[in-house]
Amino acid sequence: MIYADITGWGKCAPPAILTNADLSTFLDTDDAWIVSRTGMKERRISHVPVSDLAHVACARALAAAGKSAGDVDLIIFGSCTFDQMVPNASSRVQQLLAADNAACIDLNTACTSGMYALSVATAMIKAGSVKNALVIGAEVTSVLMDWSDRDVAVLFGDGAAAFFLEVKEEKSGVVAESLGCFGKNRDILDVTGWGLKYANKGLVLGETKWNFNGQEIFKRAVVGMSRACDIVLEKEGLTYEEIDLVIPHQANLRIIDALAKRMGASEEKVYINIHRYGNISAATTPMALVEALEEGRVAPESKLLLPAFGGGLTWSAHLLHWGDRIKPIGTTDVDLPPCDKTGLQLVQEIIAAKK
Ligand code: UT7
C-alpha cells in the first residue's frame, strides 16, 4: 500500500501585529469582549500578497524535508484570497520557488482549503499521479475585510503554512479522512462583493459586506467537526483515547472547548494557538500543526486528529500518522521583505484605499 508521508513543514506569519486594543481604536469593541467570546488576543496583517506568504512557507517546508524546488512534482494552493484568477496563484509560487517541474492547482473551500488540499495531494500521490507535492494553506483576508463590521473584523488574520508530502510504503501521513459540506446553509457565511457574481452589477469587486450569522455558524461548526471526527475514528477503528493530539481549526476557543468536551479530550490533548493569530482561514489548521511540531507537542509516531470547518459550509477531519522525524532537516534564508508598518497602519491604509 502506498502512503503520502509529510516530511517537510513550514509557516510564514507576517510580522505586523494587530491587537485587540488596536481594533478598539476604530471599532466599538474591547479586549475583554474579544478574549471572552473568542479567545483571540492578536492577529497578523500582511504587507505582501498571499502568494508571497505561501512562497516563504513553501521554501521552509522544502528545507525541512531536505529537498530542492526542482524536486517538486505538484503544488496545491488552498485559499479563498488568491491574488488573481488568471494566472492562478500556485503558478506564482512555482515561479518564486523556481519549482519548474511542478504542476499547479488552486483550490478553494474557504477555511478548510489547506486541509482539502492535503486530501487532494495525498490522493494524487496514492494514485501514482505524482511522487510528491507541496500543499499550501494561506490567506490574506485583511484586504477583503469589512473593517467597519465588528461582528467579523475582530475574528480574522493573515498567514500561511505549507507541507511537503512524499510517497512512502509504511503507513503514514493522512490515513483516514472525512470531507463534507452543509451546502443548504451556505448563505449564513456569505461575502458580498467577492467573486465574479458581483461583476457588472453596479457593485465594486472587493467592496465587501459580510453576511455572517455567528451563532448559527458556531453550532454547525461543532456538529460538522464532531461528525467528521467520529467518521474518521470509526474508519480506523480507533477511540478518542487513542489519539495523541487534537489540532482543530481555530475559529473560536468556545467552539474548540465544545468539540473537546464531546470527544472527552483533556486540555493537554488539544493544541491551541488562536490567541496569537485569530482565524487565518485556510492557513489555520496547517499553521496549528506546524506550531505544534515546533513546540514539541508532536512526538514521533503520534496519531493526530485535525478537524476543520469553513464557508460553504465545508467541514473535514484528517487522521494523521506522524513519522519518526519531528525536526526539520534544514533551514532556509528565504524570508519576507521587511515591514516598517504596524498592523494598525496597514489596516488604516486598506480602509483609506477603499474610500
Ligand atoms: O472559520 C469558520 C467561520 N467562523 C466561525 O466558526 C465563527 C463562529 N461564531 C462565533 O465564533 C461566534 O458566534 C462569534 C464570536 C462570531 C460571536 O459570539 P457570540 O457569543 O455568538 O455573540 P453574539 O453574536 O450573540 O453577540 C453578542 C453581543 C451582541 O450584542 P447584543 O445584541 O447582545 O447587544 C453583539 O452585537 O455581542 C455584540 N458583539 C460585539 N461586542 C463587542 C458582536 N461583536 C462584538 C465585538 N465587540 N467585536
Topology:
Blueprint: E1 3-12, E2 16-19, H1 20-23, H2 31-38, E3 42-45, H3 50-65, E4 74-78, H4 89-97, E5 103-107, H5 113-126, E6 132-139, H6 150-153, E7 159-168, E8 173-181, E9 189-192, E10 209-212, H7 214-236, E11 245-246, H8 253-263, H9 274-277, H10 284-294, E12 303-310, E13 314-321, H11 343-354
Parallel strand pairs: 4-5, 4-6, 11-12
Antiparallel strand pairs: 1-7, 2-3, 6-7, 8-13, 9-10, 12-13
Helix pairs in contact: 3-4, 7-8
Task: Pick out its properties.
single chain, alpha/beta, 13 strands, binds oxa(dethia)-CoA, 11 helices, globular, Peroxisomal Thiolase, Chain A, domain 1
What can you see in these coordinates?
The chain starts with a strand and ends with a helix. Strand 12 and strand 13 form a beta hairpin. Helices cover 33% and strands 23% of the residues. It is of the alpha/beta class and 355 residues long. Helix 3 (50-65) crosses helix 4. It has one domain (1-355): Peroxisomal Thiolase, Chain A, domain 1, CATH 3.40.47. It contains 11 helices and 13 strands. The mean pLDDT is 97. The chain has helices spanning 20-23, 31-38, 50-65, 89-97, 113-126, 150-153, 214-236, 253-263, 274-277, 284-294, 343-354; strands at 3-12, 16-19, 42-45, 74-78, 103-107, 132-139, 159-168, 173-181, 189-192, 209-212, 245-246, 303-310, 314-321. Residues 29, 33-34, 37-38, 111, 150-151, 154, 189, 214-215, 217-218, 221, 251-252, 255, 279, 309-310 line the site of oxa(dethia)-CoA (UT7).
